[in-house]
Amino acid sequence: MDEHTVERGDAARNRTRLLRAAALLVAERGVDAVTMDEVAARAGVGKGTVFRRFGSRAGLIRALLDHSERELQEGFLFGPPPLGPGGEPLERLVAFGRARIGLVEVQGELLRAAESASDSRYAAPAYLVSLAHVDTLLRAAGVTGDTRLLAASLMASLDATLVLYQWHELGHPLHRLADNWAELAHRVVTGRGTAESAGGVVP
Amino acid sequence: MDEHTVERGDAARNRTRLLRAAALLVAERGVDAVTMDEVAARAGVGKGTVFRRFGSRAGLIRALLDHSERELQEGFLFGPPPLGPGGEPLERLVAFGRARIGLVEVQGELLRAAESASDSRYAAPAYLVSLAHVDTLLRAAGVTGDTRLLAASLMASLDATLVLYQWHELGHPLHRLADNWAELAHRVVTGRGTAESAGGVVP
Questions:
Q1: In chain B, positions 122-161, which contact chain A (CB-CB < 8 Å)?
Q2: Looking at domain A66-194, which of 3.30.300, 1.10.357, 1.10.10, 1.10.238 is its CATH number?
Q3: Which of A116, B55, B67, B177 is most buried (CB neighbours < 10 A)?
Q4: CA-CA distances (angstroms) from residue A116 to A25, A112, A119?
Q5: Would you say the CATH fold of A66-194 matches that of A1-55?
Q6: Taking 90 as the threshold, does the pLDDT of residue B13 lie above it?
């Protein structure tokens, strides 16, 4: 390993450590608590390191969002089933929603901030990649018609703003919200509920 | 008809005229364009009349929102089928979504402003009445399980922010978005699409 490789390895580790510290801060105390000072202290590095890596607080927040969305995207594009390629379309659809709701546990405040701040939230690359994925799975599962609009309707139920409200204000555990997504996906694709609510449809 | 009745009739007519003028202003030029001066000019009354009726610009905006939501509520609670009582639950569900999407045509900017401004949008009385209505219709249509959460998922697809984006930015006519709601409702309740997309489900 030459010196250059060591340096790049350190940089990547630093970056990951800083992003993890920032994500924990967001989860514990909200997006507003994320300052360069706090992140540096939490990660146990100097403030200069944080500025060198991300340029500004806005750059850090952007990197944090990119990071969480990219993990999800890598999961459904390249990861193992049931989320990744190889699984049944309906199972992948259920796994996608569960993973998205799981993201809210750590990144929820950040996702909500992005949703309410952005005029073009429905044009954001991460949203469009997820939308295309859900659309593709619906078609692969045999759904016809305007599956893109149907995908947008389903995606709407995964809004971080809504999920956070259902979790924090209404007291639904996240796994219960994930089960509701599974129920919705099953009904839309097969017309039957999940096994847990068998018999839920009048023919 | 005594003098008092005449006066109350005039007040009600004035109120309706002012609200209509404000709604048109919102539809044409956005919520920010709604000022007491503009509304007075548009309705052909003095500015004092607007202040007497609504107190402030905020009061006017609130009255405008209440007015549009109440019209929808009166439709599904007391109006004729298919929206009102007497129709089949699934037909009423389809009619509800169509009416909600129709509201966006005139009140969309206002509804969007309310959605993004409010921390407690999911606790707003108008939202809760609509949510309870969708929940009731799902159960009446034979859907079992946690229909309240399922209703919230369906309602999410009617967000004015999303509907406006699909209409203005993506160019989908509102009737096409209403058809997508019908498709979603049919699939969730019966497992079949609407007649227009027959054969859209793999058994």
A1: 122-123, 141-146, 149-150, 152-154, 156-157, 159
A2: 1.10.357
A3: B177
A4: 20, 6, 8
A5: no
A6: no
Q: Where are the domains of chain A?
A: 1-55, 66-194
Is residue A4's pLDDT more than 60? no
Give A88's contacts in chain B (Cβ within 8 Å): none
CB within 8 Å: A149 and B172 = yes
Query: How far apart are the CA of A4 and the nearest CA of chain B, in angstroms?
Result: 47
Confidence of residue B200 (pLDDT cuts 50, 70, 90): very low
CA–CA dist A82, A59 (Å, integer): 33
Using one digit for the tens of pLDDT, what is the confidence trace for B97-144? 999 999 888 778 888 877 776 567 898 888 999 999 999 999 999 999
Asked if B165 lies within 8 A of A122 by C-beta distance, the reply is yes
Is any Cβ of chain B less than 8 angstroms from the Cβ of A165?
A: yes
Percent of chain B surpassing pLDDT 90: 56
Mean pLDDT across chain A: 86
Cβ–Cβ below 8 Å for B191 and A201: yes
B30 at the A interface (CB within 8 A)? no
Asked if the Cβ–Cβ distance from B191 to A196 is below 8 Å, we say no
CATH number of B1-55: 1.10.10.60
Give the 3-state secondary structure of residue B140. Answer: helix
Q: Where are the alpha helices (DSSP H) in chain B?
A: 3-29, 36-43, 47-54, 57-78, 89-117, 125-140, 147-156, 160-164, 174-190
Higher pLDDT, B106 or A164: A164
B176 touches chain A (CB under 8 A): yes
CA distance B62 to B49: 17
CATH class of B65-194: mainly alpha
SS3 A203: coil
- Give the residue with greater pLDDT, B165 vs B57: B165
This complex has an ipTM of 0.78
Query: What letter does residue B171 receive in the DSSP assignment?
Result: -
